[in-house]
Amino acid sequence: MKGKLPGLRHFPVLPALALAIILLGLLAISSVFTQSQQLLVDGQDGQLTKTAQSVDNNIMGHFAWYCSDLEYITSRTGFLSAEAAYLDDGDGGSLLYHLRESPLPKTVMVESMLVLRQGEVELSTSGGTDYVPLAVLGRIGAVDIQLWLDETGRPYVALVQSKPEVGYAALIDGEVFFAIAERQTAAEDSDRILVLDCQERYFFHRTPEGIRVDAVEELDPAVHAGLYIMLATQRAGRPLTSFFRAGGQSGGTGYTARLAVLPAPGNENGCFTVGVARNYDEIIRPYQSAAVRMVLCGVTVMAGAALLLVFLLRSRRSHRQAQQELSLLREKAEAMEQLNAQAQALAHRQRLESIGTLTSGIAHEFNNLLTPIMGYSILILEKLPPEDTESYDNALEIYNASQKAKRIVSRLSNLSRKGTPGALRPVRLDPLVEQVLEVAAPVRPKTVRVETGLASGDGLVLGDETQLFQLALNLLLNAFEALAPQGGTVRVSTAWDGERVSLRVADNGPGIPEAVKAHIFDPFFTTKGSGKGIGLGLAIVQQIVEAHQGAIALDSAAGQGTAFTVSFPAAPPEAAEPPPA
For residue 243, is it left (φ>0), alpha (ψ between -120 and 50) or beta? Predict the structure, then answer.
């Protein structure tokens, strides 16, 4: 066989080489699939961990918000007065009223507010007192996060603030607490949020029948694999991600789930271990189908993968452009809102300046007219014989009416000025308020009672005593007028916290409607009938407050009374000392 080519005897090697290449290609495809599957797991772990952190932050945010509200509510002056009354005579009606009217019971999560004495529930806004503390989970500021039960064994998360003689608790229903945390933070509809308290007492989770809060001791960790992983993670004290078999314990078809857990010792809230589980079968199923197709037709799959990559890149680019355009639109919308607000503020200021110019001119002209009227009326009074009483009374009426008109003109003049006070000197509010009460006593309606709580002591305000007197008098007269038809109580109080001195005038009258609040400080705005007021009292009050670098706050609602609180920077104690000789 000398005529045969030497290379032909190696011809069977080519199919073997081709087969080897094919096998290598299949191995490469399998390796790529394995790597992509691992990348998928890593990506899902990242998303699950972020979702768990979001749940943790959501829980912490709600707790911090409600704890802050609880501390604020129980430190307000009115609440402290009701608390003192309750401790003195045991009457908790006013205390419950303040708790019911506070923001906490009006939220979705807080079911009831409790009053505690010596660890026992004395009063509650819901009427029930059969609650038992189970465990302390953590603490935020001065508020403990605790686990409580009612008489039916229903668990509650309790925010408990303890004081020497009395304590308060805001009860959050366990199911409502879990439902809000789940609804606000689940990244996908298929995500399952799992929560376990740090004392390992209760397990919060969702089942096909709805949200459940189960006692851990009543569950079998071998059946509830998610609970088993959460218990192990909490005891280990470090985050964990793991697969487990889910769904079978409810009688349905089981599936493989991926679970990410943040243990209570290492997360933000410190009270609950948080887990997020996702159906891994639904996520991996498309990739498994893709692997079969890649084995059967690798080239087609590779081409499809390339096209898919191009599509994803284009989609991402389109998404980025859409986000940039949306960001630009938001910036333009914010700029337009700022311009609109500035334009409204400028228009309001121009209106006030126009009113000031107008009132200044009116005041000047009226003074010119009133001066001769008052002068001639005095001359007439002096020249009238004693027996002509009728003419004397008429002339006196002319003089008195002129005096009233001159006071109105004086108010207009005050309003038209910039509001800079005269000579400033240290003023103590308590003696000044006592003088105001004496001056206003003759005009106090018989059905109105005045209570005082003057506690500013040595606190000094650097200001114009005359203007401060006018401010307090205007607020007091407004309270008298509000209570005149039906009667009531006006409480005048002062306070000094070392930095600011404040004056508060509160009444239990009809209150101020929301539609009126925005205009009460506007000049010439009044709700009184014709001839009963010109609407300058509160405008002048605001002017005096601004001139003294103070602040004024209104607390009022229809049917719930009105309170004006004015505060000024406290003058240093040395301001009260006489200058050196």
Answer: beta
Checking if the pLDDT of 411 tops 60, the result is: no
Task: Encode burial over 524-544: b for 16+ CB neighbours within 10 A, e otherwise.
Answer: ebbeeeeeeeebbbbbbbbbb
**Three-class DSSP category at 40:** helix
Render 440-495 in DSSP notation, one character per residue. Answer: HGGGS-TTEEEEEEE--TT-EEEE-HHHHHHHHHHHHHHHHHHHTTT-EEEEEEEE
397 has a pLDDT exceeding 70: yes
Which residue shows structure tokens 């349905």?
252
Strand blocks (E) in 237-335 = 240-246, 255-262, 272-279
Tell me the β-bridge partners of 194: 275
Return the higher-pLDDT residue of 32 and 391.
391
- pLDDT of 255-299, one tens digit each? 788 888 888 876 666 788 888 888 877 777 776 677 677 667 655
Residue 109 has which token pair? 């999560």
* pTM assigned to the model: 0.44
Specify burial of residue 55 (Cβ count, 10 A radius: 0-12, 13-18, 19+): buried
Residue 501 near residue 458, CB atoms below 8 Å: no
In the predicted structure, residue 3 carries a pLDDT above the cut 50: no
Q: Above 60 in pLDDT, residue 422? A: no
How many Cβ atoms sit within 10 Å of the Cβ of residue 159? 24
Q: Which residue has the tokens 């009938």?
A: 529
Give φ, ψ of 410 to 5 degrees.
-60, -40
Q: What number is the average pLDDT over the span 145-161? A: 87
Q: What stretch of H or E contains 379? A: helix 298-383
Closest C-alpha among 460, 469, 462, 461 to residue 424: 462
**Residue 326 identity (one-letter amino acid):** L
